[in-house]
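We store chain and fold; example below:
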Amino acid sequence: MRSPAIAMPMARSRAELRTPSPGTPVAFAPAVAQDVPTIYLHPGQLHATLAERCTITTILGSCVAICLHDSAKRAGGMNHFLLAGPPPDGTASTRYAPSAMRVLLERMLALGADLSRMDARIVGGANVLSAFANSEAHLGMRNVEVARELVQAAGIRVIAEDVGGTRGRKLVFTPGTGTLWVQRIGQ
């Protein structure tokens, strides 16, 4: 049996947006046409684009995706990282949150996006391993906390989150409009 999508109508203006409290699941209704290209992100990948008519999609368990959008420039991007901390060997792997956020920001700024206009959506961070079912500090929540810290450090406002829980998520992001759609998967 397929699980239903979590959906809410998309805000028509910044005034209609509300800043959710951490852990509040929020998602926007999908606006995905059948004829637009889809870019699938594997862990450690990211994509940023300027007003391109496409969608970016991924599947998340304990991983986290940060979606950034600048509505004035119609620029958007998304990363998909696995681990919260910096790489132990000091490399700049985008499989780790700090590098994934830094590279996504660099690409957004190169497209002409402005930090003061950007907003963020954070998705993922589930506790998908039953061995850690009673742990509040599981890998997924560490990823979520680091994502929040990185977005805040960049001065970007989080306008939506769908984080935590025990189920994975399918995520579809339309970078030109900032539309986000999340569907819970698994049991």
